[in-house]
Amino acid sequence: MHALAHLLCPNLQEAITKAFSQTSRDGSGLLRTNELQVAMRSLGFDMSKDRASHLVETSQNAREGGAGGINFDQFLELIEAAAIEAAAHKDLSNTFQLFKEEKQLFASSRITLEDLRRVRDQTMPHVTNQQVEDMYRVAKSDNVAGIDIDEFCAVLNKKGYFIPPHDH
């Protein structure tokens, strides 16, 4: 059994086990694409059909010549990754709200380049103006002034942004 299973409270262990066993209907102990989507959704995580299909098609079972499918340990790993991603998104959402509260932009759902620079000055002085401008430029996905929460989260989730430099 996956090491994560021993760290979960009994109720969560039961919910995850139930989600897996109730959706793996053919008795194989593997989740196929639609079953994986249903199991993830039952635990509060969305997964696109393309993502589920890719995971099933590239699973260990498929690599070993089987039909493909996600076993319980792999399912636990997916739940762990989804939970970490959800927590990170919540943290980024809270950070985004700080930008808005600082400037009292309750009517706007966007933050500006100036907002990014101000918070950078207060919290991350190692980040250069060029890095902030690059982040803003990469985040902009439309022609509307400012960046919204989805753009903000997407750019901060990209590797390399706002990571403190290593001490040599």
TrEMBL record:
Q: Does the keyword Coiled coil apply?
A: no
Alphabetically ordered keywords of this record: Repeat
Gene3D superfamilies, A to Z: EF-hand
Q: Where is the signal peptide?
A: none
Start and end residues of each EF-hand domain: 11-46
Question: Is Repeat a UniProt keyword of this protein?
Answer: yes
- Family matches, as SUPFAM superfamilies: EF-hand
Q: What is this protein called?
A: EF-hand domain-containing protein
Q: Which organism is it from?
A: Dunaliella salina
What lineage does the source organism belong to?
A: Eukaryota, Viridiplantae, Chlorophyta, core chlorophytes, Chlorophyceae
